Amino acid sequence: TASISLGDMTVLEQRNFYNEMTPIICGFKPDLVIASSSDIVTMSCLNLARQCHLPTAFVLLEHPTFDYSFRDSDLILATSQFLIDSYVTPQGRAATYIGPFIKVTGPLLTHQDANPGSLKEQRAQLKRIADDVATRKLILLENPSLENGLGLFLELVKQCRSDRTLFDYQFAVLEREPNQFENCLNEYYDRKSGQKSYDLSHFSYLTIYPYTTERAAVLKQTRVLVMPTLSYDCAPEMSLEAVSHGVSVITTDQPTFEEFLGAQATYIDVGQDVIDHLTTPPQAEDVIPWFEALKAQVTTTPDLKELKELFARNSYEANAKRLC
User: Fold this and answer.
1) Of residues 268, 258, 265, 273, the one with CA closest to residue 288
2) Which pairs with CB-CB distance under 8 Å and at least 24 residues apart come from 92-96?
3) Tens digit of pLDDT at every position of the chain (324 positions)
4) Structure pTM?
5) Within a 10 A sphere around the Cβ of 68, how many other Cβ atoms?
6) Packing angle of the helix pair 11-21, 40-51 (nearest 10 deg)
């Protein structure tokens, strides 16, 4: 509710909340009950709808709770095939894949959709975009936070500044909320001494784009997007948007990322120790794979020829058609 979250309620308060919530189903008698979360309120509403002989649908957007059951859902829609294979199929149920419903607006998507002129003209246009990408000198982290691997990015930046190949590149973070970078910076502590690991004054060379900055404007300057996401993310919105601007992506090895980004990203397997210690900077050996991947990206000519199938599969319009 507006006044208190479900997790902060006492057992009695939660029970009263369920008792208030579920009669809505009986009172409204809707034509269809749609749910997209796997909490107990959702299960109660779907179960009551089934008892009232009302059709139900569940939209699987993210990893559900381990004990969630789809028994009261007549129709199951999913934004990821991996989610279907992992959570729906083992329960003996079928689900319809609809896609991530991520709206991307970059010039490469426009190039694929518009299909202007002859094949020769299309290739020339694609080459112009690739040549522009190759001249960019910005390495970006979006949404700097503990869960998005800010510590990994900062240690990567330190290592890159001493490398001749990457010395001329500019590093930046794009915030999602006011003062996000500084606030998250203060959450890192040394594992042994307990002292703060970082000071804002030590990163004067880092460009900080405030949350009010237009995302497309930053991506037009970006060569590589580094996304060391350390928590489950089933909708890589920023990564797909970056790809539509010709930006190379380096991210963590997650099945949903590989499903949506395919060969357009480099995937790094993060050690469990990094995940278990989010508030401490990673060790040097944990940064090496990211450094090597970044160095490989900036020394390789961007290949944008394989994007047509990626955008055809993940375009907002294609998702809408599947849903219909």
Assistant:
1) 268
2) 95/60, 96/322
3) 577 787 788 888 877 877 777 777 778 888 999 999 888 778 888 988 988 899 999 999 999 988 889 999 999 999 999 999 999 999 999 999 999 888 888 887 655 544 555 567 767 777 888 888 889 999 999 999 999 999 999 999 999 988 888 888 999 999 999 999 999 999 999 888 888 999 888 888 999 999 999 999 999 999 999 999 998 888 788 998 999 898 999 999 999 999 998 888 999 999 999 999 999 999 999 999 999 999 999 988 877 777 777 877 888 888 999 999
4) 0.85
5) 18
6) 40
Identity of the residue numbered 231: S
